[in-house]
């Protein structure tokens, strides 16, 4: 169990708070069990400096499909629908974009998800004997 009490810090110093660690359900030690610095001797009170941490949104990555002369359009549409969860009309639009431009974006995800979808696509293609290639790059 932790008990918190605010500690004021002088101007220009990092804010800190006093944390009292209480074992089990017992009560804090009386003031006579404290060292010269006012801290309890065994596991009791300490000063914890708080720093403000800003959470950043994860960087996004594009999964790209590369056109080839062997992978069928139907297979690419199936991959876009099953791996990337696109509706059929959107999957056809992406497939045609890849077909006409040589490369196209299948989806944009966090790095781990993009890598996983890229690997799933290539494994599915290899299993069906297609040379479909994918790549992952920052969005």
Could you explain how this protein is built, in words?
By secondary structure, this protein is an alpha+beta fold. The chain has two domains: 2-49, no CATH class; 60-138, Ribosomal Protein L30, Chain: A (2-Layer Sandwich). 29% of the residues lie in helices and 27% in strands. The chain contains three helices and six strands. Strands 1-2-3 form a three-stranded antiparallel beta sheet, with no helix packed on it. A hairpin with an 8-residue loop joins strand 1 and strand 2. Helix 1 crosses helix 2. The radius of gyration is 29 Å and the shape is elongated.
- Largest sheet geometry: 3 strands, antiparallel
- Overall geometric form: elongated
Which spans of ≥5 residues are poorly predicted at pLDDT below 50? 1-10
Strand content: 25-35%
Q: Can you tell me the CATH architecture of the largest domain?
A: 2-Layer Sandwich
Radius of gyration: 29 Å
Strand order of the largest sheet: 1-2-3
* Total tally of structural domains: 2
Counting H and I runs of at least 4 residues, what is the number of helices? 3
Structural class: alpha+beta
Number of strands: 6
Give the H and E element order: EEEEHHEHE
The helicity comes to 25-40%
**Mean pLDDT figure:** 81
In short:
By secondary structure, the chain is an alpha+beta fold. The protein has helices spanning 73-82, 88-101, 111-127; strands at 2-7, 16-21, 45-49, 60-66, 103-110, 133-138. Helix 1 (73-82) packs across helix 2 (88-101).
């Amino acid at each position: 169990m932790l008990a918190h009490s605010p500690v004021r810090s002088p101007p220009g110093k990092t804010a800190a708070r006093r944390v009292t660690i209480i074992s089990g359900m017992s009560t804090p030690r009386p003031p006579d069990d404290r060292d010269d610095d006012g801290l309890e001797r065994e596991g009791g009170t300490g000063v914890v400096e708080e720093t403000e941490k800003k959470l950043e949104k994860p960087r996004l990555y594009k999964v790209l499909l590369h056109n080839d002369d062997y992978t069928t359009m139907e297979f690419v549409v199936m991959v876009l629908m099953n791996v990337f969860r696109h509706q059929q009309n959107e999957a056809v639009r992406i497939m045609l974009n890849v077909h006409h431009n040589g490369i196209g974006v299948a989806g944009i995800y966090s790095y781990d998800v993009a890598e996983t979808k890229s690997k799933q696509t290539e494994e599915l293609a290899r299993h069906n004997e297609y040379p479909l290639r994918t790549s992952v790059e920052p969005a």
